[in-house]
Automatic annotation (TrEMBL):
Domain of life the protein comes from: Archaea
Name assigned to this protein: Uncharacterized protein
Amino acid sequence: MSKERVYKAFIVGLQEALFETHGEMALALNRIAGRAMMKYIKDEELLEITGDTANSLAHDVKKTIESLGDIGDVLAEEKKNTVELRIVECPFSDVKRELLKRDKVPVVCPFASLVLKATEETFGVRMRTASIDIDEEECRFVMERLE
C-alpha cells in the first residue's frame, strides 16, 4: 500500500470516527485541527501573500496547498462584500468521495483556516467564513467582510 493510500485510509477512518462519536461536535474538532494545520503552515513559512487581488489570493492559496500535495486549480472572485474561493480537485477530494460513498458527510475542508487567513491578509480586512460547500470535485468558500 502506498504512503498516500495509508494517509487516505487513516483520514477516512478518523473522519468516520469523529462523525460517529461526536456528531455535530465533529465540526468543532475539525476546525481546531484546521487551526493547528494553519500554525504548521505558518511555522514552515508556506504561506506567502504576494498581492491584494482575488487573482493573487488564488495564486497564493494554490501555491501553499501545492507545497502540501497535489491540487487542481484555485479560483477566486471578489464581490462587493464577499470573496468566493474554489479549490478544484482539492487534495482532500479523495477523502470526501470515500466519506460520501459511506454516507458520512465530510464536516469541513481542512483548508478552511488557510483560506480565511489568506483572504484576510490579502485584502487587509477581517473576514468571516459565511459558507463552505463541499462536493466530490471542489470546496467552495465564501468569506464576508466584517469591517
